[in-house]
């Protein structure tokens, strides 16, 4: 059986875009979101993932799409796992392309399909990776914009608005702000609810409605995001773990890999900090 491999990296010709090249067999991604879009070209095998209450299957020659802040998972849908090449473009980049090509609609665009069986499109995503790997920045940037434009024209519309009444959204936003400022020493759920003027169960329901995750899971995701910024700045993984509130480096590694797909040490090395 082939070994699992994963590389999470960036290229200077593609600012605002992370890239993941991976083969996974036993690895699984926990429930998480990205603040970027996800454009994943499956090159071998089958990836299976939960998305908005459904189980999706993406086989070789298809492209899986996830909008920012949408909860999803990821695991093997076949005994031999799956291989894929993933683009994580920032929302601002996708919005800029939409504006340049005159895509109708106001606000941030959203993909309207989750799995697209399109070998040509999957090949375009893979070719962006290959161009970056051979350091052909002009080709990588050109292909990226052509790919995003094609997706926007054929498979996108206005992004959906968040659920729930304005009062509930405001309460969740206040709770989220508290958690973001207290990553290392978060309050209990009861303390958090009291701080925003509600009770624990109403806050828990509103938080899950808004983010698809309970507060503690959302908090760990924010810890991983903050840890990525620290690793990008050259902070060693053990120090990053302590600064964002994980008990030790092992806890950071477990959560980091279930969200990003690689351990923090490998992530840091690709940033030239190892």
Automatic annotation (TrEMBL):
Keywords: DNA-binding, Transcription, Transcription regulation. The keyword Transcription regulation applies. It comes from the Bacteria. It holds the Pfam family HTH_18. It comes from Peterkaempfera bronchialis. The keyword Transcription applies. This is AraC family transcriptional regulator. GO terms for molecular function: DNA-binding transcription factor activity; sequence-specific DNA binding. Residues 173-270 form the HTH araC/xylS-type domain. The lineage of its organism: Bacteria, Bacillati, Actinomycetota, Actinomycetes, Kitasatosporales.
